[in-house]
Design brief:
Elements (H helix, E strand, L loop, with lengths): L1 H28 L2 H27 L4 H23 L6 H6 L2 H34 L7 H8 L1
Length: 149
């Protein structure tokens, strides 16, 4: 069961990264008008995805997911406060206030955070698969040997 769930999630992640890659490629050749339209579309999609994700987190049966949701909300609140200090959330003033280098660095580090999150998701996924393969309360031979050392 865990393999099917994780495979479906991996497919979703692949699709999102494909869209990300496509949008970055489009930005290299797009006109200002096309880029503006793509930005508007992505902002709308991001907001819809964010709301759907928050709803999903709130209804999770896992207490750890609730804690994760709280941390996620704290990070979003921090970003919103920083933007508000620059004349409003998602404001044109805030975006125009960034130099090209600052905007590029922000984008680069955001992608680094995404890669780090993907690596962490891999670890959690493998731990989940491993936990399902080992009946609860039973130790593997390796674990028994580690305890006896």
């Amino acid at each position: 069961m865990s393999h099917e769930i994780l495979s479906a999630k991996l497919y979703e992640l692949d699709r999102e990264f494909g869209l990300l890659h496509g949008s970055i490629q489009l930005s290299e050749t797009a006109s200002r008008e096309q880029l503006g339209q793509e930005l508007a579309r992505l902002r709308q999609k991001n907001e819809a995805d964010r709301l759907a994700f928050q709803t999903k987190l709130k209804f999770s049966r896992s207490p750890m997911v609730g804690k994760l949701a709280s941390s996620y909300e704290t990070i979003e609140a921090f970003i919103d406060r920083e933007r508000a200090e620059q004349d409003g959330p998602f404001s044109e003033v805030w975006r125009r206030g960034l130099s090209a280098e600052e905007a590029l660095l922000l984008a680069e580090y955001s992608l680094d955070f995404a890669a780090q999150a993907a690596n962490h998701a891999l670890l959690l996924s493998l731990e989940a698969v491993s936990a399902q393969d080992i009946p609860r309360g039973k130790e593997t031979e390796v674990e028994q040997n580690e305890v006896s050392l």
